[in-house]
Design a protein that fits this description.
7 strands, five-stranded mixed β-barrel, alpha+beta, 3 helices, OB fold (Dihydrolipoamide Acetyltransferase, E2P)
Length: 146
């Protein structure tokens, strides 16, 4: 084999390794991406079935119910247009309150409820998750608020 052919073979092997590494990195990043949806988007059927995503909005007043010794929680997340019932097993953040902003991670169940695996709450009086604020603003702009 001539030196020129050997060099070409090394370059091709290097390109294959780089392409493989890029593919693996992109697949890993893609599997960790979690999209945000509002209750209106969930009710409209815009969410992928069986995929994990984040749901954000406000915790509806009077919707929080505890059972199983306080570890099983049910509440409703709303964007003041649509509502999605959420079920969560675990401890809630200290700042979790009815009427305040929340983002929950999990999956949509066949019955239309949301099974949460993580609950994130606001951190001060003026804070609302940016995605939730945007969803509320869009709902207001379309005149969908009751």
């Amino acid at each position: 084999m001539m030196p020129r052919q050997r060099r070409l073979l090394w370059v091709l092997a290097g390109l294959v390794l780089v392409a493989t590494a890029v593919t693996l990195v992109l697949r890993a990043l893609n599997s960790n991406v979690m999209f945000f949806y509002s209750p209106s988007q969930v009710q409209a059927g815009s969410v992928p079935h069986g995929a994990a995503f984040r749901l954000g909005g406000l915790v509806e007043q009077g919707s929080l119910q505890r059972s199983d010794g306080g570890m099983l929680l049910q509440f409703v997340v709303t964007d003041e247009v649509q509502r999605v019932p959420v079920q969560y097993r675990g401890l809630l953040p200290d700042l979790f309150r009815e009427g305040k902003g929340v983002v929950v991670s999990g999956k949509l169940q066949p019955d239309g409820g949301f099974q949460a695996t993580e609950v994130l709450a606001k951190h001060d009086e003026n804070y609302m998750p940016p995605e939730a604020a945007h969803a509320l603003k869009n709902a207001e702009g379309k005149g969908e608020r009751p």
